[in-house]
Give the backbone structure.
Amino acid sequence: MAAKGIIVGAGRAGTHLHYGAHLAAGNEIVAYVDQQLPLAEEAATRFGVPAAYPSLTEALAKHPNVNFVDICTIASTHLPLAKEGLAAGCHVLVEKPLTETAAELEELREVVAQADRTVCAVHNHKYYPAMSKLLAMARGGELGRITSIHKEFMFAHERIRMMEEGHWAHNLPGGRLFEANPHNLYLLHALVGELELVEIHPRKGSERFPHAAIDQFVAVLRNDQATVTIRMSMDADTAVYGKHGTNTFMVCGTDRTVLADYGRVEQWAPAVRLLDRVKSKLLQREAAVSPPALTDRRGERINVGVGSGHYWLMQEFADFLGGKRPEPPVTIEEAYFTQQMNLEMGLAVDRLMAGSKGAV
């Protein structure tokens, strides 16, 4: 029997990224919720979802037997919506960042500890084929003991949506980049476990985005096993890096060093030798599984999230709901570390940019 759920938020995440992935995984969406009811109604009409509501409270009252709630709203609403879903006996999917503040994160931790349902963060980048390959190599010991990692996450400055004025993520600790920084952190957590922040250096490198507090940073993190550096910026040139910028790892192990991005994994030393290359247009997993070609009521193809990793995350989430796996695809420990560190880094940036003493 298909798991039934409610999607809260009829914006890009709730429609373009999540709906098709749920459908392809066998989950049934019974309602859309959005404070702007016309948006929920438009999404419901487009996808043939039975109902639309302006609040989760109303949706849960009308659909008391749903199995999950999928929260695709701005970060400041995540905690109350997650609490409401858990109180109704639902498992809860939550887009990153998990919460907006450290106090909210601690409250969510306490609520989940007392609930008989769980919260699963949407950490979809782990499911890109090349990232899955890299993580499998690390788990299988092919790299030896990982001693250092450099992570480069550069957005093309032409991608105005990432830094557009008025976007809610500018209000996050550290600003807009810290809506996307969780992707760095949960991938690093999967490779070497929990880390501590050593230092962070934020910069305002250009005047392209005068409304943004910063447009780049470099951070150093470490644990007993490894030292990690992260560089995140909005200054990638599309002529060099393409329209999506670059998202790369250099992972150094005692047995092997590899370079990886979201489309390939390559060995480094002494000369580059191809280990595995996965083209974005010809994903190995897509070829093996052949996700269904789904269309909406307008006859337009529905994105099922293979290219963004959502397809694979929702497959595992559906297996969890159906009792085929003991825990969700993203553990609560991974989710807590990711957002706790994201908040710590963002708050350090705020202190530094304000000129406060004692900043990291």
User: Anything to note?
Assistant: The chain has 13 helices and 14 strands. The longest helix spans residues 332-354. The domain at 129-262 is CATH 3.30.360.10 (Dihydrodipicolinate Reductase; domain 2).
